[in-house]
Amino acid sequence: MNQHAFFPLPAELDSAGNLPAERQEGAWRVLPIEGAFEIVYEDSRGLWSTRFLDARELKLGPGRTLIGGIDRARGGYRGFRADRIRRLTAGPERVETGILDWLLGRAEAQRRERVARRRKVKGAARAA
């Protein structure tokens, strides 16, 4: 069973309760990404469907990129190919072109926020 099936295991979280930093899984580079997305997805048969995803990770691999998370409709972990996402909505933002670039930008912004949060916590701990 996939260890990410319903939630990250406590061992996967850092001391602040956040998802871990970037990691390497074989040929795949895995970036943590958080967010609730509505995606319009085209499957291998060319059928379009709307999915609601609680994102956990962005996987960059040989020849493809996947966004993984909890698919609310199916109730389990699922990976979606970024090149088959036709529209992505995150709150008020709606992205129809450059979806992969947008996802990479969001993962990087979240990484910077985590680093800034860690520095703030470390600075407060030193001051105390």
Can you lay out the helices and strands and say which pair or pack?
Blueprint: E1 23-25, E2 28-42, E3 48-61, E4 64-71, E5 76-81, E6 85-90, E7 93-95, H1 99-127
Antiparallel strand pairs: 1-2, 2-3, 2-6, 3-4, 4-5, 6-7
The shape, in one word, is elongated
The helix count comes to: 1
Task: Give start-end ranges of low-pLDDT stretches.
Answer: 1-7
Structural class: alpha+beta
Q: What's the order of the H and E elements?
A: EEEEEEEH
The biggest beta sheet is recorded as:
7 strands, antiparallel
What count of structural domains? 1
- Name the helicity range: 10-25%
End-to-end Cα distance, whole Å, is 44 Å
Mean pLDDT: 84
- Write down how many β-strands occur, each being a DSSP E stretch of 2 or more residues: 7
Roughly how many Å is the radius of gyration? 16 Å
The quaternary state of the protein chains shown equals single chain
Query: How much β-strand is present in the residues?
Result: 35-45%
What does it look like?
This protein has one helix spanning 99-127, and strands at residues 23-25, 28-42, 48-61, 64-71, 76-81, 85-90, 93-95. The radius of gyration is 16 Å and the shape is elongated. Strand 2 and strand 3 (48-61) form a beta hairpin. The protein starts with 22 loop residues before the first strand and ends with a helix. Strands 1, 2, 3, 4, 5, 6 and 7 form a seven-stranded antiparallel β-sheet that branches. The protein has one domain. The chain is built from one helix and seven strands, in the order E-E-E-E-E-E-E-H. The model is unreliable at 1-7 (pLDDT under 50). With 128 residues, the protein is of the alpha+beta class. 23% of the residues lie in helices and 43% in strands.
